[in-house]
Amino acid sequence: MQLQDMLYSQGFGIRRVCSGLVQQGWVQLWSRDTGEWLQVTDSTAEVEPEGLRFKVQGVEWEYHALGYVLLNKPVGTECSQKPSSYPSIYTLLPAPLRNRPNKNAIQGVQAVGRLDQDTTGMLLLSDDGQFIHRMSSPKKHVPKVYQVVAKHAVTQQQIDRLLEGVVLDDDPKPVKAAACVSMGDNALSLTLTEGKYHQVKRMLAAVGNRVEGLHRSQIGGLHLPEDLQPGQWRWLTAQELALLKP
Q: Which one from 116, 127, 128, 227 is the annotated catalytic residue?
């Protein structure tokens, strides 16, 4: 693959821009042979993309044929390209992640499902359409674990009702929690395998309580890393992707 094509595939701009970055000396490649960063000024130079480490304007990157990203969503952000009242979560990502080319959809990595503006925690983003569909589809029953702070003390009767199933106003079919564990007087760990609109809030309301705080801590077998601070992102590893398989 030509160096300019590799940069284009990673979201660094149209090929003319990528070619200019190289020709102006802004691109370096890591050499496994010498253990050094080498400046390259030939934009048509052939590179082996898999496992490639490179720098653009001093910032180090790794090549990813498809992007799989984990973001710790902070409070007061919207999972929308066109937010209405709060900053978009996409502003937390660097430009190359937002601009990765995609023939079949809008550019860049896209959020896998949505979290409300006041909900924090684990959010996946990708430009792999099949992955997004698999993780979002209710038929796949991918478990998602939420830490809930309720306005009122949570009773055992409320927990039992959440496990048995409650009817929401848009569907006569009851929805139920896959697991529900008390974490204190006003706190729950709630596991869902569906993704209905405002589902956690509506389920708590259906049993006579109210959500005051909501944080997603786990998807599938993957837990939100403790060292990933609110607003921070990183690439998912192959091992972490394996934990997300239904």
A: 116
